[in-house]
């Protein structure tokens, strides 16, 4: 292990140790209570971007939010990972709200815009190329190839969140929950990196 790698691990462990000590000091029973189980009411489906940590931007604590994150906050109906998380969150954890959360300056959305503008999509032989394919098709359908990225990127981000809300609502877990009159809602938000604020796209759907 290189000195630099060792230092990175040491910094992480040191920060964790300080955080755990601070939490224990302010909330002495927090970790004991955490070990008893979880009961979050929110499933957050967001982007893997390091600038949008859900617990931080919502001032939440561990145990408040059930989380699934990936490139460009997508929900593919043929993705067992996403489908199993949704099923576990709704059927077992009993969440009541599913939030699809996109963000400004999204790298996945930018890559999709560049693919449409250049006419050259990432290779479908790579995992990233296959993952971005639906988003590239969505970007292409918006007719924004001649728009500057400052205009096109926000449009793709918003359209993507709306599309993923639609996809979640088509998932058997959600349609079954609604047929059983379960109080589960699906929402679409966009986080603005420049202001730190979440914007509600007003596309919420429920039973």
Automatic annotation (TrEMBL):
<comment type="function">
    <text>Reversible hydration of carbon dioxide.</text>
</comment>
<protein>
    <recommendedName>
        <fullName>Carbonic anhydrase</fullName>
        <ecNumber>4.2.1.1</ecNumber>
    </recommendedName>
</protein>
<dbReference type="InterPro" id="IPR036874">
    <property type="entry name" value="Carbonic_anhydrase_sf"/>
</dbReference>
<dbReference type="Pfam" id="PF00484">
    <property type="entry name" value="Pro_CA"/>
</dbReference>
<feature type="binding site">
    <location>
        <position position="103"/>
    </location>
    <ligand>
        <name>Zn(2+)</name>
    </ligand>
</feature>
<keyword id="KW-0479">Metal-binding</keyword>
<feature type="binding site">
    <location>
        <position position="47"/>
    </location>
    <ligand>
        <name>Zn(2+)</name>
    </ligand>
</feature>
<dbReference type="GO" id="GO:0071244">
    <property type="term" value="P:cellular response to carbon dioxide"/>
</dbReference>
<comment type="similarity">
    <text>Belongs to the beta-class carbonic anhydrase family.</text>
</comment>
<dbReference type="GO" id="GO:0034599">
    <property type="term" value="P:cellular response to oxidative stress"/>
</dbReference>
<dbReference type="GO" id="GO:0004089">
    <property type="term" value="F:carbonate dehydratase activity"/>
</dbReference>
<dbReference type="GO" id="GO:0008270">
    <property type="term" value="F:zinc ion binding"/>
</dbReference>
<feature type="binding site">
    <location>
        <position position="106"/>
    </location>
    <ligand>
        <name>Zn(2+)</name>
    </ligand>
</feature>
<keyword id="KW-0862">Zinc</keyword>
<keyword id="KW-0456">Lyase</keyword>
<feature type="binding site">
    <location>
        <position position="49"/>
    </location>
    <ligand>
        <name>Zn(2+)</name>
    </ligand>
</feature>
<dbReference type="InterPro" id="IPR001765">
    <property type="entry name" value="Carbonic_anhydrase"/>
</dbReference>
């Amino acid at each position: 292990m290189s000195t630099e790698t060792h230092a990175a691990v040491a910094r992480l462990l040191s920060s964790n140790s300080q955080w755990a000590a601070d939490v224990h000091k302010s909330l002495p029973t927090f970790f004991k209570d955490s070990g008893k189980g979880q009961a979050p009411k929110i499933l957050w489906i967001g982007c893997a971007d390091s600038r949008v940590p859900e617990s931080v931007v919502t001032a939440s604590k561990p145990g408040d939010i059930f989380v699934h994150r990936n490139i460009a906050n997508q929900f593919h109906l043929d993705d067992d990972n996403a489908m199993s998380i949704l099923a576990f969150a709704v059927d077992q954890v009993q969440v009541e709200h599913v939030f699809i959360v996109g963000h400004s300056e999204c790298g996945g959305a930018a890559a999709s815009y560049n693919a449409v503008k250049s006419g050259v999509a990432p290779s479908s032989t790579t995992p990233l190329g296959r993952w971005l394919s639906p988003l590239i098709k969505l970007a292409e359908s918006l007719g924004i190839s001649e728009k500057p990225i400052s205009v096109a990127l926000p449009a793709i981000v918003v359209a993507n969140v709306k599309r993923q809300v639609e996809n979640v609502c088509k998932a058997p877990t959600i349609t079954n929950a609604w047929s059983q009159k379960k109080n589960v809602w699906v929402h679409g938000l966009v986080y603005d990196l420049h202001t730190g604020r979440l914007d509600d796209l007003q596309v919420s759907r429920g039973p």
